[in-house]
Amino acid sequence: MTITIEQRSAQRLIVAQPPVAIEQPSTDHKEVNAMIVVMRSNADESQINAVLERLKEHSLRGHLSQGEERTIIGVVGAAIPPILREELEVFPGVQQTVPITRPYKLTAREFRPEDTIVMVGDVAVGAGSCVIMAGPCTVESEEQIITTARSVREAGATMLRGGAFKPRSSPYTFRGMGEEGLRLLALARAETGLPIVTEVMTPTDVDLVARYADVLQVGARNMQNYQLLEEVGRTGKPVLLKRGLSATIEEWLLSAEYVVAQGNPNVILCERGIRTFETATRNTMDLNAVALAKRRSHLPVIADPSHGTGKWYLVPPLALASLAAGADGLIIEVHPDPDRAKSDGAQSLTPENFAALMSRLAALAAALGR
Amino acid sequence: MTITIEQRSAQRLIVAQPPVAIEQPSTDHKEVNAMIVVMRSNADESQINAVLERLKEHSLRGHLSQGEERTIIGVVGAAIPPILREELEVFPGVQQTVPITRPYKLTAREFRPEDTIVMVGDVAVGAGSCVIMAGPCTVESEEQIITTARSVREAGATMLRGGAFKPRSSPYTFRGMGEEGLRLLALARAETGLPIVTEVMTPTDVDLVARYADVLQVGARNMQNYQLLEEVGRTGKPVLLKRGLSATIEEWLLSAEYVVAQGNPNVILCERGIRTFETATRNTMDLNAVALAKRRSHLPVIADPSHGTGKWYLVPPLALASLAAGADGLIIEVHPDPDRAKSDGAQSLTPENFAALMSRLAALAAALGR
Amino acid sequence: MTITIEQRSAQRLIVAQPPVAIEQPSTDHKEVNAMIVVMRSNADESQINAVLERLKEHSLRGHLSQGEERTIIGVVGAAIPPILREELEVFPGVQQTVPITRPYKLTAREFRPEDTIVMVGDVAVGAGSCVIMAGPCTVESEEQIITTARSVREAGATMLRGGAFKPRSSPYTFRGMGEEGLRLLALARAETGLPIVTEVMTPTDVDLVARYADVLQVGARNMQNYQLLEEVGRTGKPVLLKRGLSATIEEWLLSAEYVVAQGNPNVILCERGIRTFETATRNTMDLNAVALAKRRSHLPVIADPSHGTGKWYLVPPLALASLAAGADGLIIEVHPDPDRAKSDGAQSLTPENFAALMSRLAALAAALGR
Amino acid sequence: MTITIEQRSAQRLIVAQPPVAIEQPSTDHKEVNAMIVVMRSNADESQINAVLERLKEHSLRGHLSQGEERTIIGVVGAAIPPILREELEVFPGVQQTVPITRPYKLTAREFRPEDTIVMVGDVAVGAGSCVIMAGPCTVESEEQIITTARSVREAGATMLRGGAFKPRSSPYTFRGMGEEGLRLLALARAETGLPIVTEVMTPTDVDLVARYADVLQVGARNMQNYQLLEEVGRTGKPVLLKRGLSATIEEWLLSAEYVVAQGNPNVILCERGIRTFETATRNTMDLNAVALAKRRSHLPVIADPSHGTGKWYLVPPLALASLAAGADGLIIEVHPDPDRAKSDGAQSLTPENFAALMSRLAALAAALGR
Lengths: 370, 370, 370, 370
Description:
The structure is a homotetramer of 370-residue chains. With 370 residues, the first copy, chain A, is of the alpha/beta class. The first copy, chain A, has two domains: 34-100, 2-Layer Sandwich (Alpha-Beta Plaits), CATH 3.30.70; 118-367, Aldolase class I (TIM Barrel, Alpha-Beta Barrel). Chain A is built from eleven helices and 14 strands. The first copy, chain A, has an eight-stranded parallel beta barrel with strand order 7-8-9-10-11-12-13-14, surrounded by seven helices. Chain A has a four-stranded antiparallel β-sheet with strand order 2-3-1-4, covered by helices on one side. In chain A, strand 2 (62-66) and strand 3 (71-77) form a beta hairpin. Chain A is elongated. Chains in contact: A-B, A-C, A-D, B-C, B-D, C-D.
């Protein structure tokens, strides 16, 4: 684990731990401070407890993060007295204290060097293997969702995606089956054992959706819907946070911070393409963001090549590319009959093409040692 | 009033009525139909009623729009039988029927050729003169809001803006005074007689904010928060709808359609700058959008040069430019002490600079015959 | 004239001189230094000469800029010894020396506080009035160019624009008449007395085009064609430098620096719309850039609403807006028969609409005191 | 080989031949026509010759493309008489004729279904394996270029990249060693046997650079420098065409068409990141474009993760992702001492990290069957 400032002249082999980036953070978020206390590798429990005690005296809570090599204690608070850092630096077992200058704190890699693993049932997201969430854009009928769930499970998917509440830019288009859709998803889960990922669009729906869903999806349009972020945060359930169409990586991590700040560390980031000048594709898949978000944050990051491209025939190459870029998982639209899909048919794979893609992903994962 | 397809070879003088644009609309909004029935200039009331009657028989409602020259009847419905158009074409007094192919219907210029005028107290928005909404980004104290309200009224502003609920990209920054802020705004209104424009961020706050505000502002981040759009639609109160950071003009009008579809025609569109590659300014003011939105829609359009530029010294030139581009009003951040503002100080004008700007705007408005 | 660092707390009335902006310049252009020597208001000629002499001793040239209030001496050089600044600070008549930290030097407002005026024949660009350059996108025939030239001059245009060499994204589209087109432009000038603005696309054509043209236009696609910039710089002729489709304001001014660094100060900047996600308009007119470029640089800035919008019916409102934003001129496409134009018909005005626009521009200019 | 219109309902397995896409092409390139004549699988030589003969009679040239299954004859011409298509349809051995409606013709996949393979010495670009071009951004000294050439060859690179003529946004920064740099590149080639890729910036330099280089690079800023495109086209040498910072995929292929239209089919397309709103990375790598360009065109496509990310630590993940997305090669900046590089140090890999990346690329290529 490396806390020293990155030096290109000391470029470590790529296999080394990601160092702390050198970029200056944006400066207009002064209201809160955060720091990490780096313990010596030989620090014992009593020394760690002594630090936690002192933090308590300042009514601050320490977030323990035990690495193989050493222990890190993260602290976030509106009022971290400057003197406290100096005090702690001379504590036995303390190697150094480092202020976190990024606007996001709890989600920052500096705050927690180890990767966060989000458990969905017994599926581990962020633990190395590539998790596949597949299913239709929208739940349309019992037969459609059950058929699809069976075929994607057979092909190797580990979660089922499907929309019951759909955000639509026009008030005149189909907006999903609502709670009935949630019931059908639960039915598909009972049939196949696949956990469910589905979108929640507004704070007042969170309890309802949380009763059915295993993962609460916050869509791109709602990435900065702060009341919704706090509400899903309060549930403690895994949250799939899609990046906004024109959100910077920093804004994306700040939205994740809203969820984590509610005491819910189970956030899965999802790159789904950004809006650019290019019109030949629905969005522009930003795989730089997948790699950079994993470096800047300890949260798992997955990719959505269906929305990221908007064309079924571009989904396979971009799915493979996302995995190679380091994505912890993929969310892919699959429909038994794309031409008759109520939404996103053009970007949905047939079950056959999905199965073909899965076997190529498996080969790739093996080559990447995942 | 011109319903014929625009022909460049027949470019009318700019003073002529805006014709219907020729661009093809996006095609994936087939669920609803809309058409307009154009009556002959000499059509009498009985003929108009006959049309409305026939629409009723198909359980469709006609939206009357009486121009100087002639009357237009707009119709929107999931099920407009094709045969109905043919029937109506032979009705006495009917000149022609024209289907509306744009995804937005009620907000389309074709649907209502006359400009919509939104009344806020006795301030008319969209009636020709340039309405000025001014005030601080955030309500900070009684003294601050009262002082500012007095100075902007003195300088000629006709509405007071101020935030009680603030969307902030970081969970650690000041998010406004909440209801206390609303109370202070009401106090400032009582003091100065200026109607209040303030933001509402989530559906459950709409009733509360509506009790205090004269205009409900929906911010850029919430432009596609559909539950919020429908909730403010239900209040019937004037709604200020800001364009999203990366929303197309079509998406912006579709969001307005959500409000109007609730039976609330009182929507004021607000261009506040879009996100582009340029970093020398906070956003890129898109005045093309002001002119095009006024052409595509009958709703009033105002501009926000404070957020559109992010720099106080660019506010005056862009405010003047917005007026010249046809904006029906401006919303401008003014703070008694920008350097100590809790937010947006860099883009807030001092009362002195605001007053200087107002006199230049007056001269310009006169020259434009407004 | 203000050299002090801008303080928002000391916001001057908008009528005051633009102060030096506070933004940090990008830092990766360290190879060259520049500074300005600010003389006291009462400094006499001998004191000024003494400074110039000392600069000579370091083989540096001083650029004199005589303001009403005081004199500024600008210096650019790879090797400005730090000691020199200290020496000069104690010279009689010297008030202070200020290093220029922006990547562009000769084009920076700090380097030359007074506006640069570019003379084209007896037309002054940047002297306060709004210069109108009008004509067809492409020269198509003698009759077409002569007719258009006559009609735009009648309407009040002061220069004639027309393309003989056309950059086209497809190799299969009409690329202009070449030298024959230049001959026809010269003919139109002889007929009407209007100076000619026309594009040059490649270094080897510069001499040819310069023999005919009064202003050499460098197109958006060539904004970073450095050999072309240096070649037009060497001619000493006025250069119209269009902003690239995705060029930042800083990159735009750096391209101007290429021309001025050849000893040719006669650069006219032209904002012509940038490329964004919005597809309802051909480009997004960035009027922030017009106002900011005039603040950051002393060069005149004009606007091109024809390319900036791509739609004839948006040209008038954006032309008025550009003037209000502070543009020193406009370049507008006019064609006797837009529907039959070989290029850009959709954005070309008819002579009638151009005349109507001209009268509205005149009224606006008067109101703005220009 | 599939000429039928793509049907999603008939999604073939991903391994199938790419079908013709359904998108409508832009319509403003009517000046030239193109079509393909599809011969029956059993068509014999005499039947093929008969078609070529008839084309000659109309002074049109047929481009033969012999697939395993069948033969395609492509035709491009300003004047393809409509009647000709009907005539050919009844020729013996002709299955059908299909007009090419895209603005680009010779570079379109429809025009030539088979992948184009560009030979650089005995290195085949586009033949399945992933070609690696590596080296410093700029040639700085004999020792620097020789050392780097040796280390990248050792690590498995098959070509050497290095800049002798550098486009720089500022006139005050180092612009490369010029011809001396070319000489050093030639020296490095003699030492290592690696072919040279280097940039040419202006038409008058093409002959000079072509005397030294094996591949002529046209940079992003020059993607629409048409005289340069035609000049490199005339040399017949392999051309590396970088995508412009804000160029659409269609514009990119149209620029390639300029080169191919000169009779030079040896074009290698290079995605190097586009300009978006995201500032955390230098550019946004658009891997959608890599996959889509390979589908729309028969030309090989490589990727430049160094410029695409701007950060050395993002180069490895994006290099792997580019390969997985289908890139035919990679161009990567390597410098013996990035911290002291005269340009692009931040995005240059050390020889150690490059070697580590190469072994990971090899494993990935094997898994992808390349």
